[in-house]
Backbone:
């Protein structure tokens, strides 16, 4: 079918696809939940917001679960090193994620306003914290992570939670949070009416522009202030994972190597910036479908740009650069990659199909009257 | 406590709390589909109301199942990173397939199940409910394929170059007999849980004389479904897998406190007090022949005793020392002639060599005392397994009795005339959870000292963390989960008490529209 090298490349693409799927779907519900207390005035407006995503948030979240599972299956060394290395960051994400299913399902089960307000906070924290931390994690990946392996490939990690919260990573975290917020605002354009809609348009068009600015700023920072990694030895892309056997150089501007070799790649970040700007513009103009699409494209471009910048690295090591994990030497075996590829080819199209169907079934706008009419049956 | 103990405790806690919600989701999803099928076939709205009311309770349970499920997937990486590295090539695949094949479908359709009533035709909504139930069950299949592989790792081989286990045959992993028996056993146990849940709450309504039309029908469906499931959970008991692989043999010996091998067929110890220090069961009451029959499905196969298993382990540990030394030489490039061939001969015992690394820094030259320690540790403590297994079996048989009686009374159409039966049903509510938790305890505690049977000991599987770090997260998870469970149980009882009429699902006229079925005198 395919050789090991091709499979490895395909899996690098597929992990990217899953991350984009997560950003485009779960991104909007995390964004809406973050905005819950900001644009939602009063219980009924908040219920409109929550019910706009009620039938979808659970399916959306499975993109995250699948990305985690796919990482485990396709890149076990990355799954092991990243999850162990970012221990407290991931635990915080997990604790925040705990709150989401409960907040969605339990919030409107009781009339009590304190109860509802607590769960509203739960929903906001449960969505904003992971959105922020995912960005922080990528910000750290771009700077290298302090780990290495012993002779038996047992991870040694040096560093703690506070080390992760450096300025560049926080910028990346803010970008990921705000792009989800923008996307959430765009979703509210599609699903709500009246003041709620105009309020979210005002916020969304602002955050979209901030995203564009942060993305550019991050790029400049990366170019000028952050060392990049390059493999200087030859990696046997068909061979077994010789994770610790390569030679890696760290240099200023090193992350620009791929762009100087293939200048066309510059289109990716440019499209990302344009996407955010277009999103801000179309939101102002009331072109909602276009606003949602352009924010989705912009987020996809942020993910792709990050991946392409680091290629072939996925988790560079600042402690021992030669032990960095790349998409050539941190993969599963050829057989596992092959089987998982077949599984993905069968099921991802099916998933897209029934997901699209569920959105179609639940199409249309919600308003406060609808909430009042269906008080008991809704979130 | 050291980091290994703390990591184990964290996993045990998160897994056991997760499994408070899983079986009810498994069982209730099928029951919802059955109720809705009756609605679509008969057109009687009371069955739609049943689907909606039990669906509401399903939702309260489902939310916490999702919450605690996320932790399960993440914690292999966070807390068991060497495990993830060492076996991720095999273990990761079923988890990823579970998400792609089942969890996506389940999570997407659960939204349509709750919010699609007015937007889908009857038939389409029914299809959604059935597919949701099916997806839930498929989820269980893949998770148990993963767990079955931990118990009985087939279809894989150590790759010395990458220093990890790699997949050799996916079919063997999928068709692993241990995984298959686990799947049917666990899923049936879930059905029993769903049935007891519906039966117990319906019985409470009948005892109070409330929601009678609603409760009778729920009672009838739950008792029939429960009887079939309870029979299958017992007939398809896990034991059929206990002859496979060393881990399962050890588990069986410990469950039965079989201190030494007895002539076939072995006796079943109904009661006794396992005495670890004397390697003997005090006050044992035995039924001759029964255990051999259950465990080996034959009259002439011996059930291996703990003493004999330990002797076997000692040999394998000694072989494992050699395998360990050879592995070191092969990996460091100091290979001598014949090392590769010799390694092939002893590689299946490498795991036992790794077991020794808990007691000795120099595995290849460990002392006899250190080897003795490893041998002793190769068998889990007997009494917790002995008792939790009996708790599971006792709970299982009481539920079988409950369903048999409930079904009989339901067929005769007068369950509410037997308040003792209704009380029996109500007080049986905790039983399926006791059985499930006890069963998982047997499966997982019985796997000790292994993370992956005969391959990777638990003490090597952990992450590179400090015990303070793990303790911190353990405490945080403990507080969060406890809070969540309290809230969940409060909501459950709140809505169960309110009942279908109090929750706006049942119109006043329903009872008049659908009069109680009257018992047929001829029968």
Residues:
């Amino acid at each position: 079918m395919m050789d090991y090298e091709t499979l490895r490349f395909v899996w690098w693409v597929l992990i990217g696809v899953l991350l984009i799927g997560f950003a485009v779907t779960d991104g909007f519900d995390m964004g809406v939940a973050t905005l819950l207390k900001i644009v939602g005035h009063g219980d009924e407006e908040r219920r409109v917001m929550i019910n706009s995503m009620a039938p979808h948030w659970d399916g959306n979240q499975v993109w995250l679960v699948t990305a985690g599972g796919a990482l485990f299956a396709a890149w076990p060394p990355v799954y092991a090193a990243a999850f162990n290395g970012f221990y407290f960051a991931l635990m915080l994400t997990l604790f925040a994620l705990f709150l989401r299913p409960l907040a969605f399902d339990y919030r409107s089960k009781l009339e009590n306003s304190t109860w509802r307000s607590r769960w509203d906070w739960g929903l906001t924290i449960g969505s904003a914290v992971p959105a922020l931390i995912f960005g922080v994690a990528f910000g750290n990946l771009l700077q290298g992570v302090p780990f290495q392996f012993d002779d038996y490939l047992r991870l040694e990690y040096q560093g703690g939670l506070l080390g992760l919260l450096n300025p560049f990573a926080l910028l990346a975290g803010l970008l990921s949070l705000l792009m989800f917020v923008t996307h959430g605002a765009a979703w509210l354009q599609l699903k709500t009416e009246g003041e709620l809609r105009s309020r979210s348009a005002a916020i969304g068009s602002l955050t979209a522009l901030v995203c564009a600015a942060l993305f550019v700023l991050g790029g400049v920072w990366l170019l000028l202030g952050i060392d990049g990694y390059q493999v200087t030895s030859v990696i046997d892309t068909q061979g077994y994972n010789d994770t610790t056997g390569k030679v890696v150089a760290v240099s200023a501007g090193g992350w620009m190597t791929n762009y100087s070799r293939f200048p066309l790649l510059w289109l990716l970040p440019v499209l990302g910036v344009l996407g955010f700007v277009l999103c801000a513009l179309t939101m102002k103009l009331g072109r909602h479908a276009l606003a949602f699409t352009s924010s989705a494209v912009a987020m996809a471009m942020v993910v792709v740009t990050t991946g392409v910048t680091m290629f072939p690295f996925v988790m560079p090591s600042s402690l021992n650069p030669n032990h960095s994990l790349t998409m050539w030497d941190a993969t599963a075996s050829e057989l596992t990659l092959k089987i998982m590829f077949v599984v993905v080819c069968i099921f991802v199209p099916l998933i897209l199909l029934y997901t699209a169907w569920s959105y179609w079934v639940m199409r249309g706008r919600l308003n406060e009257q609808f909430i009042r009419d269906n008080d008991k049956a809704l979130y | 406590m050291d980091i290994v103990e703390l990591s184990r405790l964290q996993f045990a806690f998160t897994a056991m709390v997760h499994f408070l919600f899983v079986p009810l989701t498994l069982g209730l999803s099928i029951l919802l589909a059955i109720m809705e099928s009756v609605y679509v076939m008969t057109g009687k709205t009371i069955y739609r109301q049943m689907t909606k009311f039990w669906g509401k309770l399903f939702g309260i349970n489902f939310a916490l199942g999702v919450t605690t499920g996320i932790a399960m997937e993440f914690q292999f990486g966070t807390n068991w990173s060497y495990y993830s590295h060492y076996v991720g090539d095999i273990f990761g695949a079923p988890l990823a397939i579970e998400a792609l094949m089942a969890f996506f479908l389940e999570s997407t359709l659960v939204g349509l199940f709750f919010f699609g009533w007015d937007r889908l035709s009857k038939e389409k909504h029914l299809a959604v409910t059935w597919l949701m139930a099916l997806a839930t069950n498929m989820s269980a299949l893949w998770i148990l394929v993963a767990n079955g592989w931990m118990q009985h790792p087939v279809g894989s081989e150590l790759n010395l170059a990458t220093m990890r286990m790699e997949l050799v045959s996916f079919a063997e992993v999928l068709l692993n007999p241990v995984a298959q028996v686990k799947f049917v056993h666990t899923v049936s146990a879930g059905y029993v849980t769903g049935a007891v849940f519906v039966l117990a709450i319906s019985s409470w309504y009948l005892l109070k004389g409330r929601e009678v039309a609603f409760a009778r029908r729920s009672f009838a469906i739950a008792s029939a479904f429960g009887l079939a499931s309870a029979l299958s959970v017992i007939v398809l008991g896990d034991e059929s897998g206990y002859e496979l692989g060393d881990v399962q043999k050890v588990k069986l010996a410990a469950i039965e406190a079989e201190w030494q091998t007895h002539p076939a067929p072995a006796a079943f110890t109904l009661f006794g007090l396992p005495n670890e220090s004397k390697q003997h069961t005090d006050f044992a009451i035995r039924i001759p022949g029964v255990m051999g029959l259950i465990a080996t499905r034959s009259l002439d196969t011996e059930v291996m005793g703990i003493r004999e298993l330990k002797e076997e382990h000692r040999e394998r540990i000694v072989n494992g020392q050699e395998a360990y030394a050879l592995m070191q030489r092969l990996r460091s490039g100091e290979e001598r002639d014949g090392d590769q061939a010799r390694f092939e001969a002893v590689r299946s015992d490498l795991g036992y060599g790794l077991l020794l690394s808990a007691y000795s820094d120099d595995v290849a030259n460990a002392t006899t005392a250190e080897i003795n320690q490893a041998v002793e540790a190769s068998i889990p403590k007997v009494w917790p397994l002995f008792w939790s297994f009996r708790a599971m079996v006792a709970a299982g048989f009481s539920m079988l009795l409950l369903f048999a009686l409930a079904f009989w009374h339901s067929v005769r159409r007068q369950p509410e005339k037997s308040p003792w039966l209704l009380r029996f049903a109500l007080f049986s509510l905790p039983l399926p959870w006791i059985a499930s938790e006890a069963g998982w305890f047997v499966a997982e505690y019985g796997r000790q000292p292994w993370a992956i049977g005969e391959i990777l000991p638990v003490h090597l599987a952990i992450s590179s963390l400090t015990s303070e770090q793990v303790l911190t997260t353990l405490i945080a998870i403990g507080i969060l989960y406890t809070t969540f469970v309290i809230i969940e149980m409060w909501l459950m009882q709140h809505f169960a008490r309110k009942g279908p009429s109090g929750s706006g699902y049942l119109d006043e006229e329903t009872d008049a529209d659908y009069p109680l079925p009257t018992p047929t005198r001829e029968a």
User: Anything to note?
Assistant: Confidence is low (pLDDT under 50) at residues 508-523 of chain B. The two ends of chain B are 65 Å apart (CA to CA). The longest strand of chain B covers residues 268-275. The beta strands of chain B are 156-159, 164-167, 268-275, 280-287, 450-452, 456-457.
